[in-house]
Write a structure and sequence with these properties.
The protein is mostly helical. It has one domain. 77% of the residues lie in helices and 0% in strands. The protein is built from 4 helices and no strands. The chain has helices at residues 2-26, 30-55, 58-80, 86-123. α1 packs across α2, α2 packs antiparallel against α3 (58-80) and α3 packs across α4.
Length: 145
């Protein structure tokens, strides 16, 4: 359920940003912005947000998401539109999305850490450990010396 909530939030904010920049600024149609946003959201969520963010920090995940997102948006915009400014449209879009993604990664880390703690706590309870106390043992009797 957490993944669905995070995916929806990422899709809505990404769509709003891309629609303002690509739709209003570079005259990309609504349907094309929707397809670009869908591809961007799915690819970057599973690669950058789930895989890279778990093993690295927020800055590394944001930079890798910039690169992955740039590739996805550039090729999809180039394939779906006939404009000349594909590079500048993609660059402006990814700079704006990267600012959003920096804060989104904090939310992802917080939500997924809470979910994992709850799941791990239910599966593996904390072990109850104790020490054993006894008298000192020696390899020989003191009387034999």
């Amino acid at each position: 359920m957490e993944h669905l909530k995070l995916l929806t939030m990422k899709f809505l904010f990404s769509f709003a940003i891309l629609f303002i920049i690509l739709g209003a600024g570079f005259d990309v149609s609504f349907g094309n912005v929707l397809l670009i946003t869908l591809a961007f959201t799915v690819v970057t969520y599973f690669i950058a947000d789930l895989l890279i963010l778990r093993n690295a920090n927020n800055t590394t995940a944001t930079i890798s998401e910039f690169v992955i997102g740039f590739i996805v948006i550039y090729f999809m915009t180039d394939a779906l539109t006939v404009g000349d400014n594909v590079f500048s449209a993609t660059l402006i879009s990814m700079v704006s999305l990267s600012i959003f993604e920096y804060f989104f990664h904090q939310s992802v880390a917080r939500n997924l850490d809470d979910t994992e703690e709850q799941r791990d706590g239910a599966v593996q309870p904390q072990p109850q450990l104790s020490t054993e106390a006894s008298e000192e043992l020696s390899p020989y009797d003191e009387d034999e010396e």
